[in-house]
């Protein structure tokens, strides 16, 4: 049986499909393309679909097909990201992920900490959906976190 969330997702997917996907940079209509257009050398991604705005060098991947959720493989994972935003997101992940990867805290606790530090609800705390400014804040918060860890370790040695 479908949950309310699943039903809502299906409605959202239908609305998106009907409205088409817009490029947030130029306001133009994004084009649905195959993975080969985005990652010519990644044969494993060629079957996947992406929404692309070529003039802005912006794109976003799609949810994997899931009939139960109303996803047919063309629903975007979020908004299109250009080169600057893609770079900012991966920099944010590189700074933040070690906090839970190196087991300073659990992944769940790390995201709860980040959400609190950013002043946003934890259920909205997805780096993939952040803009450039939020990504930069994740980076500086994470760096400050590691500065503190380092300082605490140094104090331990004294
Ligand atoms: Zn565009």
- Helix/strand structural class: mainly alpha
The helix fraction, in percent, is 40-55%
Broad shape: globular
Number of strands: 3
pLDDT averaged over residues: 90
Largest sheet: 3 strands, antiparallel
Kindly describe this structure.
This protein has helices spanning 4-19, 35-38, 83-101, 107-118, 132-157; strands at 31-34, 49-53, 58-61. With 158 residues, the chain is mainly α. The protein folds into 2 domains: 1-80, no CATH class; 83-158, no CATH class. Strands 1-2-3 form a 3-stranded antiparallel β-sheet. A hairpin with a 4-residue loop joins strand 2 (49-53) and strand 3 (58-61). Helix 3 runs parallel beside helix 5. The mean pLDDT is 90.
Keywords summarizing the entry:
binds zinc ion, three-stranded antiparallel β-sheet, mainly alpha, 158 residues
Summarize the structure in short.
By secondary structure, the protein is mainly alpha-helical. Helices cover 49% and strands 8% of the residues.
Topology:
Elements: H1 4-19, E1 31-34, H2 35-38, E2 49-53, E3 58-61, H3 83-101, H4 107-118, H5 132-157
Antiparallel strand pairs: 1-2, 2-3
Helix pairs in contact: 3-4, 3-5
Bound molecules: zinc ion.
């Amino acid at each position: 049986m479908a949950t309310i969330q699943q039903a809502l997702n299906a409605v959202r997917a239908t609305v998106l499909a009907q409205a088409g996907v817009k490029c947030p940079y130029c306001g133009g209509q994004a084009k649905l393309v195959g993975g080969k257009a985005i990652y010519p050398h990644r044969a494993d991604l060629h079957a996947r679909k992406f929404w692309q705005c070529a003039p802005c060098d912006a794109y976003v991947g799609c949810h994997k097909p899931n009939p139960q959720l109303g996803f047919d493989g063309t629903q975007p994972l979020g908004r299109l990201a250009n080169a600057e935003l893609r770079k900012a997101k991966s920099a944010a992940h590189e700074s933040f992920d070690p906090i839970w990867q190196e087991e300073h805290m659990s992944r769940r606790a790390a995201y709860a900490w980040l959400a609190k530090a950013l002043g946003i609800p934890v259920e909205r705390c997805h780096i993939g959906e952040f803009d450039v400014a939020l990504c930069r804040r994740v980076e500086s918060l994470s760096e400050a976190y590691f500065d503190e860890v380092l300082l605490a370790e140094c104090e331990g040695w004294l």
